[in-house]
Write a structure and sequence with these properties.
binds magnesium ion; 26% strand; 4-stranded antiparallel beta sheet; binds adenosine-5'-triphosphate; Rossmann fold
């Protein structure tokens, strides 16, 4: 059974009086543990699709299917949707989106804080231990107290990946995770993602223009004219 499944998924943006159809009926099934790369021209709707899959935005109210583990994401109430975004899904973005005021360790633990809410204080030690272990395994053991501005792009992206992994998500959604990095650094980031995925059996959907990344995927799909080719 697919971990994530869509049928006839559509997204239209409203720009003033103009309707801009971006996704025109996307059908996609991704199996547990699978690594799918999504390719497509700039503006073809790749980021839009990831946002819908991750519950960050809602598709058009048309007849569609959007299932995670056989549960309709669109049928979740606000609390369930929050839970889905925080614990089932880990997001990695092209520009890291780290919080500049927080140090490396805090940037990772804050994701667990939003998950646990008021119960976080009783879990702080455990979360910090796990965050430290993750960051060490990414070669950032001596950067824990640094601010993002003191890190290189590749280091920042490794912090962002640790943040995405801290709550043990079953699905990783990454939007051009190597788009802002040089080739060698990008390859290192891919290897980190792939190692974790293999070790922990995670499912990964990655939007990329990077042929090296796409070549490592189990399957490559292409968005053309708002549908998957
Ligand atoms: N919030 C929005 N409001 C209006 N239009 C939007 C919005 N977000 C995206 N779009 C439009 O939808 C189309 C698809 O955007 P999207 O960001 O999904 O493309 P993409 O495939 O990720 O492109 P890129 O490779 O450049 O990141 C674009 O034409 C964009 O202008
Ligand atoms: Mg995009």
């Amino acid at each position: 059974m697919a971990l994530i499944q869509t049928a006839n998924l559509k997204k239209t943006y409203q720009l003033g009086h103009v309707q801009v159809p971006v996704l025109r009926g996307v059908n996609l099934s991704v199996q547990p543990g699978e690594f799918v790369a999504i390719l497509g021209a700039s503006g073809s709707g790749k980021s839009t699709l990831l946002h819908l899959l991750g519950g960050l935005d809602a598709p058009d109210a048309d007849d569609f299917k959007l299932l995670f583990d056989n549960r309709p994401i669109n049928g979740m109430n606000a609390a369930q949707l929050d839970q889905y975004r925080r614990t089932d899904v880990g997001f990695v973005f092209q520009f890291y989106h780290l919080l500049p005021e927080l140090n490396v360790l805090q940037n990772v633990t804050i994701a667990a804080m939003t998950r646990w809410g008021w119960a976080f204080s009783s879990r702080r030690a455990e979360v910090e231990k796990r965050a430290t272990e993750l960051l060490r395994s990414f070669g950032l053991g001596d950067r824990l107290r640094h601010r993002p501005v003191e890190l290189s792009g590749g280091e920042r992206q490794r912090v962002a990946i640790a943040r995405a992994l801290i709550n043990g998500p079953r699905l990783i959604l990454a939007d051009e995770p190597t788009g802002n990095l040089d080739r060698k650094t990008g390859a290192g980031i891919i290897d980190i993602l792939l190692e974790r995925r293999k070790a922990e059996g995670r499912t990964m959907i990655v939007v990329t223009h990077d042929p090296e990344l796409a070549a490592k995927a189990d399957r490559v799909v292409r968005i053309v004219s708002g549908v998957i080719e």
